[in-house]
């Protein structure tokens, strides 16, 4: 009797040479490795609390203690708690913008405008920004009273005490969001699009979601949606500026919503 079932042929053994594509796209390799290194450095050195812990694990405990003592000294000064957040925003700006931008210009020898910093044309799509804000703002107002949201925002808990506190924090906050958009929706996304096309949006969304670990669960889930949306927007307009505008507006709105829920906006506005 003949059988309809056929025995599958075993897959041939592959050599390392068979696995490596020819020619190898070195730009993809370096973009991925650089992104992995930057995210690693950000995780271990991106905040003052992590620096001395990391130094201790590297066998540099004395240096770590000196840095920790410096942090405690700074915290006792005027606006001391704010400087730690400025360190975080400054580290993000260097890691997410300065270093990738230098790599684009000096190593890849390409234009920054090809990585999302194009300053023309994107403003014709401002209607997308308006629509996105109309959708997101009710969500922000809906979750503003959640304990996890109140605990998280604003990062600087003295932001309501004066305009100096508020603007000193929000300006640093805005700067790091620009750097964040350039890193994910500029350097990573546009650095991979020549090889993966639209699939580069989903590749970028994975690490973008992961940097939100530790934040409230709805925000982390929302980061997946936001990553896909903002990535698509960046490919469509060949610019990160609409993403920066959306990200900054929503972030400031979240801070204001948290302060409003705690009835602290009146203190800021002298009411």
Shape: globular
How would you spell out the order of helices and strands?
Answer: HHHHHHHHHHHH
Structurally, the number of domains stands at 1
Number of strands: 0
Low-confidence stretches: none
Quickly count the helices. 12
Q: Helix content range of the residues, please?
A: over 70%
Q: Mind describing the biggest β-sheet?
A: none
What is the average of the pLDDT values? 87
Strand content: under 5%
Distance from N terminus to C terminus (CA atoms, Å) equals 92 Å
- Rg for CA atoms: 23 Å
Helix-and-strand structural type: mainly alpha
Quaternary structure state of the chains depicted: single chain
Overview of the structural elements:
With 271 residues, the chain is an all-alpha fold. The protein has one domain (19-268). The chain has helices spanning 16-19, 26-45, 48-57, 61-75, 80-107, 126-143, 147-152, 163-196, 199-210, 217-237, 241-261, 265-268. The mean pLDDT is 87.
């Amino acid at each position: 009797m003949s059988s309809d079932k056929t025995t599958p042929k075993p897959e041939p053994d592959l050599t390392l040479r068979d696995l490596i594509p020819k020619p190898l796209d070195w730009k993809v390799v370096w973009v991925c490795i650089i992104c992995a290194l930057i995210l690693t450095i950000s995780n271990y050195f991106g905040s003052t609390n992590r620096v001395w812990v990391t130094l201790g694990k590297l066998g540099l405990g004395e240096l770590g203690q000196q840095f920790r003592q410096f942090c405690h000294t700074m915290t006792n000064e005027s606006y001391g708690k704010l400087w730690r957040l400025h360190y975080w925003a400054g580290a993000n700006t260097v890691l997410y913008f300065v270093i990738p931008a230098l790599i684009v210009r000096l190593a890849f020898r390409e234009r920054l405008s090809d990585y999302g910093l194009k300053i023309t044309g994107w403003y014709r799509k401002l209607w997308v920004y308006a629509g996105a804000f109309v959708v997101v703002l009710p969500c922000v107002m809906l979750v503003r009273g959640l304990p996890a949201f109140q605990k998280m925002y604003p990062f600087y808990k003295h932001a309501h005490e004066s305009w100096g506190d508020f603007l000193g924090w929000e300006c640093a906050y805005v700067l790091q969001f620009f750097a964040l958009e350039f890193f994910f929706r500029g350097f990573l996304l546009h650095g991979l699009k020549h090889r993966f096309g639209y699939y580069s949006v989903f590749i970028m969304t994975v690490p973008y979601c992961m940097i939100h670990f530790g934040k409230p669960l709805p925000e982390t889930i929302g980061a997946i949606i936001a990553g896909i949306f903002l990535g698509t927007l960046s490919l469509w307009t060949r610019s990160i500026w609409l993403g920066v505008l959306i990200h900054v507006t929503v972030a400031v709105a979240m801070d204001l919503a948290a302060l409003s829920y705690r009835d602290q906006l009146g203190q800021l506005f002298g009411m």
